[in-house]
Amino acid sequence: MNAIEVKHLSKQYVIAKRQEGMWGAIRSLFHREYITKTAVEDVSFSIEAGEMVGYIGPNGAGKSTTIKMLTGILVPTSGEVRVGGLVPYKERQKNARQIGVVFGQRSQLWWDLPTIESFELLKEVYHISDRRYRRNMDTFTEILKLDEFFQTPVRQLSLGQRMRADIAASLLHDPSILFLDEPTIGLDVVAKERMRTFIQEMNKERGITVILTTHDMSDIEKLCKRMILIDKGRVMYDGGLEKIKEHFGTSRILIVDVEKDISLNIEGVEVIREEGIRKWLRFNREEYTAAQLIQQISEKTEIIDISLQEPEIDSIIRQMYEQGL
Ligand SMILES: Nc1ncnc2c1ncn2[C@@H]1O[C@H](COP(=O)(O)OP(=O)(O)OP(=O)(O)O)[C@@H](O)[C@H]1O
């Protein structure tokens, strides 16, 4: 069964146009002009129950707008959206029972209360039975070490602690679908790793469907087999990580130690770094094979050592963002 089904989904925002200057401001009191901004355009995808999918794209691509439509906060301008069989904006409360949401930049916990009290309040809000509450709290506390800061008010938690508390809170009512928006933003390496391990475990052990929005490609690499890439509101790619490397990652880097420190001017090849006799050469595998390139270099100087670097997913995506999709 598909956990999420999105068909030809679009969202336009209608924004009042700002008129310049004082006269403009006065004029707009009587005559307001509006412009429409398309944030999501004709987006279709389906996500199976138990899948973990990365939803990525540059700033302003339309990720948050999509997530808001999936969680029922926003009403689509057109198209269809179903989450666990429900139309989120029509059945917001019912939908809230089957989804968990974590926004890395914002907390859903009560700022001034000791952390444990936020959990107790959520227990009431979601009508969670004592048994379920205990079971979940025990599991989450064991993995996320929540008891280290149960008595600390949320506003005094470190970012890492706050994220641990937030993700636990989002799962307290056993949702089957989890939306994570930048869950590792600002965390140090250890905290990131802990968060990723927890997400992975919840997906594997409990079969929770996860949609992960992030700008950190290593989140995606570690967690998701599939990613949906959007730009300017449209889906540009939907598939596996490996395939994106094949499709878009046409550049390779040859690292070569040469005998003489000479400049290696080869047409279509970019020297991206030099450290004495060691050079990093970026080339396009559609224009050159590594063997051809090595041949060309060896005509100029003797080669002492070589190695070939495949592009990292991070650099491929960065390149795609920079050059447009
Ligand atoms: N409430 C709003 N009113 C008008 N325009 C909006 C509103 N929210 C978002 N937008 C615009 O819609 C587009 C998509 O925004 P959205 O927040 O969905 O992008 P995003 O991919 O989540 O970006 P980021 O990675 O920066 O969070 C942007 O051009 C943004 O300026």
What's a concise summary of this model?
With 325 residues, the chain is α/β, with parallel strands linked by helices.
- Specify Rg, calculated over alpha carbons: 25 Å
- The percent range for helix content is 25-40%
- Beta-strand content bin: 25-35%
CATH topology of the largest domain: Rossmann fold
How far apart the termini lie comes to: 31 Å
Strands, count: 13
CATH 4th-level superfamily of the largest domain = P-loop containing nucleotide triphosphate hydrolases
How many DSSP helices?
11
Q: Find the structural class using helix and strand composition.
A: alpha/beta
Oligomer description: single chain
CATH architectural group of the largest domain: 3-Layer(aba) Sandwich
Bound molecules: adenosine-5'-triphosphate
Shape: globular
Low-confidence stretches: none
Main sheet specs: 6 strands, mixed
| CATH class descriptor of the largest domain | Alpha Beta
Strand order of the largest sheet: 5-6-7-3-8-9
Count of discrete domains: 2
Q: Give the SSE string.
A: EHEEHEHEHHHEHEHEEHEEEHEH
Q: How confident overall, as mean pLDDT?
A: 89
